[in-house]
Amino acid sequence: MLHSSSISCSRLVRRGQHIKSSFNRLQRVVYAVKQAATSSPHVLTNWLQRNGGSEQLVEIKGVEMETGVTQPLDTLVARQKIAPGQVLIDIPEKLVITLDRVFESEFVAELLTNDKLSELACLTLYLMYEKKTGKESFWAPYIQALDRQRGRGVQAVESPLLWKDEELEELLQGSPVVTAVRQRLAGIREEYDELDKVWFMASSLFKRYPFDIPTEAFPFERFRQAFAAVQASIVHLQGVSVGKRFALVPLGPPLLSYSSTSKAMLQYNSEHETIQLVADREYEEGEALCAWCGPQPNSRLLLNYGLVDENNPYDKLQVTITLPNNDPLFRIKRAVLQPFGLATQQTFDLGRNKPLPPALLPFMRLALATTEEQARLVVFPEPPPPRSTSGGMPSTSTPSPPSESAGPTNPVSSASVKTPLSMEIETKALNLLAGYMHRRLNSYKHSLSKDLEIISDPLSTPRQRIAARLTKIEKSILQDCLGELKKAASGVAGQGMSTTVEASAAVSVELPSAEACEAALRGSSIKFA
């Protein structure tokens, strides 16, 4: 009887999957009919040609996405076979939306973005008012194309800025992306509250819009959606004035796929006054085109563009370690750190290709030093070159695309990892770092193996699948760090520095309980974040 019930349940599940699959196919047919009748992708390309754009070597096609996506996603593909060096996209500057065009003045554009609003907020507000004018807007075909994408990246997922908070927690618990999303949303809210100031500061520039002031014309939820769509579409142009550095380029993203390993970039051609994309490799007819998105980790790619690149060589997690300022040797330790470009509150990158930064263990040795002699004996690598960081918004400075040996390079030497001060200090350092890695691993909702199940499950939603891809990579980095700590412990034991069970257990590949991880850190005055 039990066997019969199991068979019946199995049949019901298969029947349900078949019904869902049939319904999805029906939805795609209905969608295709509606799109053909209302907003064909050809509207955008025809608009470009009517307004002085040349015939492109690309076209927009609706591409069927992986299981769980009911509607084809508009994607930019090669219209014919492409050779390296051919110009794929060539958009006249007059058909690109930048701040100097929006405000018709470089001075006003710089004034506004140096005050309370970001470039993205100004561009978002502009497009919202333009959309409100309907078909009368010059930009209507482009706005229509953005609406069709709804800020979705090439993996058919919107930025987590548009996810419900409970979904964010459910899918990304333990990932630093959760905090980043909430911080970004708080920033968007602050900018929304400043929109009326822009209206009054530049009222003469908005006189063509016979509508209410921003916060009365647009509720916050609509502004948030528009902001996410603009963020997913923005291009960072190099070698241009402030008013041109953030650009919305027709045929650019999100129609154009972003890749961490492509060598092609959308660039401003000053001679022709156009935005161009030059092919970096061969493309077959119908193949989706890619451009480099800059050296961004997957956490940033998901937040900005709704995508995760599993081949991203720039992926990383970060750990921030703070020395206690009540340490009697605090000033001495600070003086030891300064020549190497390090501070008493230091952030280290746990890289995908080099999970254990060579300066991390020396920093921990210094943190645990109990005498001035020990502190001054700590060997540090050469100081890293200056780095520029942004507060989480898309960067305004993008370096050159990657070379063949692309990937994050750490300027410090791993030799410093092999310079322990004493058995006791080395054991404590390894215990604390291993405890921190375990604590972070235990903060996720489920294991790495569960991530793999979600990714391969045909019934997973696009958001579930992309979240699992991200957390899988993050957990892999943390586990690689534990592996490196285990090697370091073996090296110490081999030198006769430590043969204790405690040192080995701290770097075990077996994950201890969350309580055990916390216990390794609880007694320390050194703070980890």
UniProtKB/TrEMBL annotation:
GO annotation, biological process: methylation
Sequence segments annotated as region (Disordered): 380-419
Keyword Ribonucleoprotein: no
Residue stretches of biased makeup (Polar residues): 410-419
GO molecular function annotation: protein-lysine N-methyltransferase activity
Domain of life (superkingdom): Eukaryota
ATP-binding recorded as keyword: no
Domain Rubisco LSMT substrate-binding, chain residue ranges per copy: 325-478
Keywords for this protein: Methyltransferase, S-adenosyl-L-methionine, Transferase
Pfam families with a match to the protein in the record: Rubis-subs-bind
Biased composition (Low complexity): 388-409
InterPro entries documented for this protein: Rubisco_LSMT_subst-bd, Rubisco_LSMT_subst-bd_sf, SET_dom_sf, SETD3_SETD6_MTase
PANTHER family: RUBISCO METHYLTRANSFERASE FAMILY PROTEIN (PTHR13271:SF9), UNCHARACTERIZED PUTATIVE METHYLTRANSFERASE (PTHR13271)
Entry protein name: Rubisco LSMT substrate-binding domain-containing protein
Organism: Chlamydomonas eustigma
